[in-house]
Write a structure and sequence with these properties.
Elements lengths: L49 H25 L5 H8 L4 E5 L2 E6 L6 H19 L5 E7 L8 H21 L7 E10 L4 E11 L1 H15 L9 E4 L2 H6 L8 E4 L2 E4 L2 H11 L5 E4 L14 E7 L9 E5 L4 E4 L13 H10 L4 H6 L1 H14 L31 H12 L11 H16 L2
Antiparallel strand pairs: 1-2, 1-11, 2-10, 3-5, 3-6, 4-5, 4-9, 7-8, 11-12
Helix pairs in contact: 1-2, 1-8, 4-5, 10-12
């Protein structure tokens, strides 16, 4: 008797194809070729299309990233410029030929861009991991350290890993292949940092040798009970492609958010380091997961009828909005957890400063057409240079203060262009920048 064999389970598991996905049953139960029992099934609402699901997840990431980036920029750390870029990441999406194109900051802390990096990493490493028949999920840690020792500790972890790999291959005589991910979390109560590695190792003997040599190298700086080796499962493997640092944790049933200052300490210590690192093998990919994102034009639009539309991000609408019609792009609605996160990090004037610049543009249109000068506007003449994101220039007679003029011009150059070309947009953006200067203490 012939029995069809099922696919071999792998570390990351298998992804269901279109034919394997459950189909929603229409409410009237009219399914061609279905039995009578189909009529007794509860009505199932069809889920979002793949394109809409992708855009809704991107909207969620943008909704969460924006207030966090503002709080990080307020710290005026060495990463301030990068934090500012995240504020405006994917703020405008231009639709052409059934595709949505936008500018992305590419920063690791940006939730929008981290989704892109994670997808790249999975596409790059999953085909190789699926060939490992004895994959082990390994966790290697050291004791928590204060913030001023974090960078030095990460350096030592990288050096120790290289020494251990050579010892396993040369002294133990074992081949060694692994995918390693660097992570760091923050302890809210002790205000210290927990750097650690997660690895998928090809072979149990290699995984145990790695654990033992790690403990020997770190001595009393590593707790034996905290080092873990277990068979790799799809659930544990996906942990390798998640966060590089947790933004919130639960303690005693209460959610505690990591402070912006602690996040900045982690991001500065991890700057310039690879998050994912292949060890003992080379994975070929068209695009490296650490490569810059820049302009992305591969996102499918929901309908080609909206070609030529510029969608502008509205924080209070948690969506991109057609600046001409007010139509929402994704229809995503935040849950209680997302609203709680934004409420924790958002500054009081988040919406008026960063979230609704297109509303300011619309409000200024009527004022400009009637010749009225908006409240707070200096009436300075402004002109927009063509060329897209980050190329907006303001021209005025100047304030007589070279430092203030330079700061104003630098801030102006970071603003988006007016996507819809509405009259009076320059005055609207000027008002937005005045509020931005107040919140970021320029």
């Amino acid at each position: 008797m012939y029995v069809e064999s099922s696919p071999r389970p792998t570390c990351l598991g298998s992804v269901a194809g279109p034919a394997e996905r459950p189909q929603a049953v229409p409410c009237d139960g009219a399914v061609s070729g279905a039995g009578l029992d189909t009529l007794a099934r509860p009505c199932q609402k069809p889920g979002p299309s793949p394109a809409q699901d992708t855009l809704q997840k991107r909207a969620r990431s943008k909704y969460l990233s924006m207030p966090l980036a503002i709080r990080l920029a307020e710290l005026r750390s060495p990463l301030e410029k990068s934090y500012r870029n995240t504020i405006y990441c994917a703020s405008t999406l231009k639709q052409d030929d059934g595709k949505l194109r936008g500018r992305y900051c590419g920063n690791r802390w940006c939730l929008v861009c981290s989704r892109v990096r994670t997808a790249r990493a999975i596409n790059k490493y999953k085909p190789i991991l699926d060939t490992w028949t004895d994959a082990q999920f390994v966790t290697l840690t050291v004791r928590n350290v204060p913030g001023d020792q974090l960078d030095q500790t990460l350096d030592q972890m990288v050096k120790t890993s290289a020494v251990i790999r050579r010892a396993i291959t040369r002294t133990d005589g074992l081949s060694f292949e692994a995918l390693r991910k660097l992570e760091c979390t923050h302890n809210y109560h002790r205000d210290d940092y927990h750097p650690h590695y997660h690895l998928i190792v090809n072979g149990k003997a290699q995984a145990l040798a790695l654990r033992n040599r790690w403990l020997a190298a770190w001595g009393d700086q590593a707790d034996a009970q905290a080092q873990d080796v277990r068979p790799c499962t799809p659930g544990s493997a996906l942990e390798l492609f998640k966060y590089a640092t947790k933004l919130a944790s639960s303690s005693g049933g209460k959610k505690e958010y990591i402070t912006p200052a602690a996040l900045d300490t982690i991001f500065r210590a991890m700057r310039g380091r690879r998050i994912w690192q292949s060890v003992g093998f080379t994975a070929k990919a068209t695009v490296d997961e650490e490569a810059a994102i820049g302009t992305d034009g591969n996102t499918a639009a929901l309908t080609e009828d909206a070609d030529g539309t510029d969608w502008l991000w509205h924080q209070d609408q948690h969506d991109w909005v057609d600046t001409r019609t007010g139509e929402l792009l994704t229809g995503w609605t935040p849950n209680t957890s997302a609203e709680s996160f934004v409420a924790h990090y958002a500054p009081p004037n988040l919406i008026t400063t960063y979230g609704n610049e297109s509303q300011a543009v619309t409000a200024q249109t009527s004022s400009t057409q009637t010749g009225a000068v908006p409240p707070g506007s200096t009436g300075a003449s402004t002109q927009e240079a063509p060329g897209g994101y980050g190329r907006r220039h303001e021209r005025s007679a100047g304030s007589g203060n070279p430092t203030a003029d330079t700061r104003r011009r630098c801030e102006t150059s970071r603003r988006r262009r007016n996507p819809a070309g509405l009259p009076g947009a320059n005055a609207g953006y000027a008002l937005a920048v005045e509020s931005a200067q107040e919140i970021l203490r320029l």
